[in-house]
Amino acid sequence: MKRPSPKPAGFTLVELLLVITIITILAGLTFAMLGFAERKAKTERAKGEVNALSLAIEAYKIDNGDYPRDPNTDAATVDPQRTPLTTISTASTPVMLSSVTLYKALSGDINLDGIPGDTVAGSKSKIYFDFKKKMLHFNSANTVDAIVDPFRNAYGYSTIGSTTNSNGIQAGGYNPTFDLWSTADDSTVNQNIWIKNW
After folding, report:
1. Residues 71-120 pLDDT 10s
2. 88-104 residues labelled b (16+ CB within 10 A) or e (exposed)
């Protein structure tokens, strides 16, 4: 008697759909974790940059008797709207211009070409902070127009409140020294999740 040949082994349609669904869910979880890890790494890098910049600003004050400042740093407030890279090209707000003031003072790059330690009046400018290229934004004229955080938003810098009036009274403001901040990955202007030196 002839035996029937066994059916070839294989997966049913339901089994295939179940496997595809499980793989899709696992891939989605993996991508979500990668996004979280990337944001966490950027946040930690921004914290480190704020701390390092703060130390460089203090070193600048020790040598020069005051923090890097000009009318733009005295006008910059600590509550600007988020300044993403797409709007940096206009660089006309006090917050944007104060970022350039800070860059010039700490890098010694007076002509803003991205090369630190320019020679002024026969002597080389002191370099207080070594800016990496990824920390700088260059405009269409290939000059630096902002210091940017790991999220590619402009760092904010303000000396509002560090000035005194003619009577020697503090002018007011948020901090009698300076404020330095990154809006991080915030699109709601929620200062609680900003990375700041205060």
Report:
1. 878 776 654 444 454 544 444 566 778 888 999 999 999 999 999 988 88
2. beebebbbbbbbbbbbb
